[in-house]
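input
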Amino acid sequence: MYEVHEAFEAQKETYKQQEDAFKRQEDLIRERDLAIQEELIRYCKFLQENDAKKQRADKRYTEERDARLKKQQEIGGLEDQLQDLQKNSSKLDKKVQALKKYEDYLESVIKAHSEQYSDQGELLKRHEILERSNITLREHQMKLEEELEKLRIDAAQFEKQKNEEILTLNNELAGLTKDLDDVDKQKNKLQSQVEASSHQASFKNLNLGRILMAIDNISVRCLEGIVKIKDDAKRETEKGEKIDSKKDKANTKPKDGKEKKEGGQQGEEDDFMKKAEKALKKLEEIGNMMSDFQDIINECNKDPTAYKKK
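output
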């Protein structure tokens, strides 16, 4: 047990030494880890700084590149402007050389007319006034030409409109002429019908006149027959009956006169319907007379003495 205890103590001491050694090593490792962490932190900061520097450098590079391109473009534009200016300068030089002769001409004019023009400015001013007047006159001329063109267009439109109206009126005239021809044809047709109607009416009036004359003749004959019959009756009757016969004759004569008066007035009436109505009335009277005659004849045939008694 003692040996075991000694061994245990020795081993325990060894373990303690080892533990101390491990603690020292652990502390050393922790220090190294902290140092590494600090190193990592510094490295990360370094990387971040480098990244920021890189971004700034890239941005600056981009800006400088854009600025360089812009400057190059400006240089190109300025070079183009320079070339244009040089061209314009050469053109102006040529123009100056070309206008030199005009300047010489103006100088000669001033020398020749020194009393009117003292310098080129006055001469140019006079030319400017004349040029403005010329421009004004040209504008006035253009306005007049525009108005003339407008008037020409209006005249053409007016002429076109009037031609269309003339064409329309001609068409209407042709239609009216055709209608007039149709109306004339209808008029001639109606006139022919009127003439035919007039001829027919004349023929009817002639026939009616003949019929009326025949009716009047028959009526007169009937009246004469009545008078004759009554006269015969008066001769064969007695004196009292003779007086009655005279009264009947007196009553009959006015009727005859009335009929004759009506027959005389018949020629004065022109209305066809009135003539026809009067003719019908006379025919009715004639029919009545004929009926009376027939009755008298029948009675006479039956009893010849009966009529004498009446």
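quick obs: The helical segments are 2-112, 120-236, 239-266, 272-302, 304-309.
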